Every structure is written in structure tokens, then in C-alpha cells.
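Quick note —
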Amino acid sequence: MLREFSLPAHAAARARQCAELPLWLRTGLAACQGHGAAAWLSALPTPGVGGTAIPGVAMRTAVRLWLGVAPRSSPPAARCRCGEAADAAGRHFLGACPEQRPRHTKLHHHVVHLVAEALRRAEGWGAVEVEVGLDTAPTALRPDVRATRTGSGEVTWVDVSVASPFASRVAPLVADTPLAALAAEGREGDKVRRYAHALPAGPPSHTFTPLVWEVYGRIGPASAAWLREALGGPRLATARARLLSAISVALWKSNARAVADGYARCFGIPDPIGPGIAGPLEGVRIGARIGE
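Predicted structure written out below.
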């Protein structure tokens, strides 16, 4: 009860502290709050390519991004290989830079694999298939996962996505509503509108669920609710926590890799560090769609 009474005071204090910050920085700080955003910080490091350990340089980059400072002490060269201007805050590399598409694809496939493996190991789920097409769709639609419940035979179609809170159309809303994963929530709605109407009529019954994370680790509300139900109960709580932690670490590893790859692909004379490196998003090419 006391915590609920204190929430407005905390929100007002946060608004006062962030009022003078640039939009990019306010959006980044907001994206670090909410469900699942900090899971990577508490993950026990395990070795290997698929492990949760983040190497030293990558960890420093991730922490700097998390804290809202430039990911490296020196700025990148002036222009990315894609032709767009680079910036010291790293926002171009975390957006829709064409040079980052292979990384987006790799991240997407990795998250799909983690979700599919978690369902295969969970009680209550039978056959779990990856990238099975919807034959009833008027166009070629291929959700990422098709999973069947062992008891009822109900089929659930899952499509995984990663959304950026830094898109110009959504960044102001994210900055003003720091505890809501608005970018992920919007992508969830897009996925439902795209896939739900194309499901087979059954029997058995068919349902669709999106699983959407933001690039800074927050999970969408519908996605979180479905995972609580699909991997629910005391016996699966650990499996759900392990899945969320692994995906959070994968996102932040990918963010660090985006900076490393982005710096390596820039050319020209670096811009000096100074006021404005984390300025407003207007005029900066930031895309909303990260990893279809």
C-alpha cells in the first residue's frame, strides 16, 4: 500500500530529473526500466558461444549504453559504410542501418531457437516446429514456431520479433512513459493483425501469440503474459526465468556487437565529442523494425 502511494512522487521526481535531457537519452533511460530490462545484469555467466558470459570489452560497451553515455570513449569516424552519418552515442548502429541486417537476422534466429528449446523441454507441450508455413494464408506467412499442447491438441503459432524504442514515431512516447514497453506493445499489435486472421479454422483450435522484446531487453505485456501461462507453475518458473535471462543477455551481446561492427565500418574524420552527441532524434535515420 505504501509503495502504491509513493509511485506518483517517484514519477514526479523522475520527470524533474529528466526534463532537461535530450530525447535520445531520455528514451534510452526509459527503455532500461520495466519488465525484463535488467535481467542481463543478474545472469550468472556461463562459458561458450551460447553462454551468458559477456566478455570484458563487450560488457563495458553494454554498461555504457545502459547508463546513457557514449558506448566508447572516442567517437566513430564521421560516416557509416551505408552512407549515413555516424554519431558518438551509437544510435545509428542500434537503428535500421543496412550494414547491421546480418546481425539482426542472427539475433532473431537465436531468440527463436531459445524459445523453441524452452517449449520442447517444458511439460504440457508436444511437437514444437520452427518456421512452418500457414497454408491457409492468402500470402506466404511463416510464423517462427508452431507448438502443440499435449492434452488438448491445441496449436499455438508464435512469431518472435525485436522492436526499437528509438524510432522517431515512438521515442517521445517511450521517454514520457518510462515504465511501459510501448515499442514492444505496438509490435505485438502489428503481429496480431498480420497473422491472427490467417490461422486455420480447426479442429484442433489454433491460436496466435507474438513474442516481442525491445533492444534494451524489455518484453511486451502480451508476450510476458503468454510466457507466464505457457511456462507457468512452480516447476517451470526456473525454466521461464532462465529463458528470459538468456534472451536478455543475447540482446545486450548484440547491442555491443552493433557498436563494434559499426565503428569498424565507419570512415572519414571523426567528429569531436561535444555538446549534442546525444541530441534529439529529429533528422537521424532510426528504424523501428529490428529483426522481423
